[in-house]
Amino acid sequence: MNADKPADAQAPLSEQLQALKRSSSQLAHKINNLLSPAALYVDSVLAREHQLSARSQEQLRSVQAAIEEVSQSLESFRQLDRPVNAGTTQLDDQAGTSTPQASTVVSAPRQAPAAVGLRVLLVDDDPLLLEALTYTVNFDGHAVVCAPDAGEALTQAERAKAAGQPFDLVITDLTMQGMDGLALAEQLKTRGLTRHVILLTGWGSDPLAEGQLPEHIDQVMTKPPRLSALRSALAGIAVGR
Fold first, then answer.
1. Which PANTHER family does the record match to this protein (predicted)?
2. What angle is formed at CA 138 by the lines to CA 46 and CA 59, rounded to 5 degrees?
3. What pTM did the predictor assign?
């Protein structure tokens, strides 16, 4: 009997398990992205539409709770592909770098919410999320410009700076085709195109467990982002402007 046979037989199984872990992590990421527009719209309606009937509010809160539960449940998918060394501080767009938690915000200290009126550049290759973000941010009186990718974002930022109206804040997705959110943030900061960058990620926040932000990033929010977290961040930036 060949003593090496069991090891050889296990190799394909090990590869299959790794592929399964990556797939589960990618699935969690996609679901977080899909949940994000719904989470923002539900939060916005509950916060702003005060004429809603008690029954309508109850139904929307049920939807809100369901979104939260699904997002929290996705953590188990991410745990499958969590790296052994969870102390890394580098966010990236590969499966297995982090664990999503609903409404998680990791940021530098912020001042209390105050008056608003920022110039904000939103960057995301998901048109549904971009639309939801635009509605949410614009509703509070901020001037919003959208870009579907990092290249267009840099063009818009350069144009705004040349016009003497640079963006106060850029909110960008992490994972995009071409240049990702981290590389975009580096370009924006080193070229003096904005002072603040918020990174949205569906991969989670484990790399920030020790409170260390990636270079050029002022704040990280996991998807689905929540209205209260966005409003607090925007107000904090407005105070320090």
1. RESPONSE REGULATORY DOMAIN-CONTAINING PROTEIN, STRESS RESPONSE REGULATOR PROTEIN 1
2. 15
3. 0.73
